[in-house]
Design goal:
Layout: E1 3-14, E2 20-21, E3 27-28, E4 30-40, E5 45-50, H1 62-76, H2 84-94, H3 99-117, H4 121-124, E6 133-134, E7 136-139, H5 144-156, E8 161-165, H6 170-183, E9 189-193, H7 200-209, E10 216-218, H8 224-231, E11 238-240, H9 247-255, E12 261-265, H10 266-269, H11 272-285, E13 288-292, H12 298-309, E14 316-318, E15 331-332, E16 341-342, E17 353-354, H13 356-359, E18 362-366
Parallel strand pairs: 7-8, 8-9, 9-10, 10-11, 11-12, 12-13, 13-14
Antiparallel strand pairs: 1-4, 1-18, 2-3, 4-5, 6-16, 15-17
Helix pairs in contact: 1-3, 2-3, 5-6, 6-7, 7-8
Bound molecules: magnesium ion.
The site of magnesium ion has 6 residues, from loops.
Length: about 375
């Protein structure tokens, strides 16, 4: 089996809420997503998706996905998509870094592996743990009362986990955490995700001010060392995200006891192969995980569902259903949320088929 063509489509994903806002005044109203196709000589096509959270979140941007694919694709033609280890070595040798560029190709090759073997990706990644995957809802940054209102609304839809976008003015953030925790019951989880937005002294003020509340603190500051300093001075459960972009960082953070939960994003780590490696290491080390991606639509949501569903339940902190945040459906067969949970599909591969009429023309086509 040989890869004979790599192509991509650019898709705009507007947000149901109109915009998504997080730390430092950053916001996006329409996501720019790239849907990647990998075609084989025998006529099978696998699909992946890469959607950065705008150009100012991680070192990744939407046009960079396409430019990177044009650079990388000629090196991948002729590879066997079923040999994911060989394929990833080839991609790493041809293009240093840029994990998000490689992610779409890797996901598409998992989809192909599933189609060839007749198995869903989650079964290929270890099997299906439990009936379904519990979801969190990200709550866009707004004034405290509006965020509390949104939490109440999403709670009605069945969500039991909420990730507040903080990392703004610390006093406002303290009010945001208080206003939302107040309306939740003890069995519901609240995460205050600063997305690197606080300086170290601001983070210290916030964690002291909410010390009496049941809230997780996620990635308070920009650097790993700043986060570690906060971690060592608070007893809130602690999540690292942006700083954990490699196995090396994961091992370092484990050795420093720097986190209780880690956020693994598929494109941040370079695809399902590498995220599975990090996931399995976390399982062995007893670190719970948020399993997700930076953003995306139906195909990303399917990839997340397969990754999460093949992870032992006790170490699966949360995941999210990005396809319910956006107004455009790019594929049939993607997981649909049911009362705060989703399931990986049972069809071969990712179990999705792209809606050709939504994808439009190919913006990358290398054969
Ligand atoms: Mg985060």
């Amino acid at each position: 089996m040989k890869i004979v063509r790599i192509f991509a489509h650019r898709v705009e994903l507007p947000l149901v809420e109109g915009s998504y806002k997080w730390s430092g005044g950053k916001s996006v109203s329409v996501f720019d997503s790239t849907i990647v196709g990998v075609e084989t000589a025998c006529g099978l096509t696998g699909y992946g998706e890469v959607c950065p959270l705008g150009p100012f979140y991680l070192p990744a941007y939407a046009e960079g996905v396409r430019a990177g694919l044009r650079e990388l694709a000629p090196h991948v033609l002729g590879c066997n998509p079923r040999e994911l280890g060989v394929l990833n070595r080839r991609m790493d040798a041809a293009l240093k870094g840029h994990p998000y560029v490689k992610s779409g190709i890797d996901i598409a090759c998992w989809d192909l592996l599933g189609k060839v073997t007749g198995l869903p990706v989650c079964e290929l990644m270890g099997g299906r743990f439990g009936e379904s995957v519990r979801l969190y809802r990200a709550i866009s940054q707004l004034p405290p009362d509006e965020m509390a209102r949104n939490v109440a609304e999403y709670r009605q839809q069945g969500y039991t986990r909420f990730q507040l976008k903080v990392g703004g003015d610390p006093d406002q953030d303290i009010a945001r955490i208080r206003a939302t925790r107040e309306i939740l019951s003890p069995n519901e989880r609240l995460v205050a995700d600063a997305n690197t937005g606080w300086t170290q002294h601001e983070a210290m003020r916030v964690v002291r001010a909410v010390r009496d509340l049941d809230v997780y603190i996620e990635q308070p500051c920009e650097t790993y060392e700043e986060c570690l300093a906060i971690r060592r001075r608070t007893d809130h459960p602690f999540v690292l995200d942006e700083n954990i972009d490699s196995l090396q960082m994961l091992l370092r953070a484990k050795s420093d006891l720097a986190m209780d939960v880690v956020n693994l994003k598929i494109s941040k780590l370079g695809g399902l192969t590498k995220t599975r490696q990090a996931r399995d290491l976390c399982v062995s080390m007893g670190i719970a995980m948020t399993l997700e991606d930076s953003w995306g639509g139906d195909i990303t949501t399917a990839a997340i569902a397969h990754l999460a569903h093949s992870t032992p339940e006790e170490l699966r902190f949360t995941s999210t259903d990005f396809n319910s945040y956006v107004t455009v459906s790019t594929a049939k067969g993607a997981p649909q949320r049911q009362h705060g949970f989703m399931q990986a599909g049972r069809a071969p591969g990712l179990g999705i088929s792209p809606r050709e009429e939504v994808l439009g023309e190919r913006v990358v086509d290398v054969s």
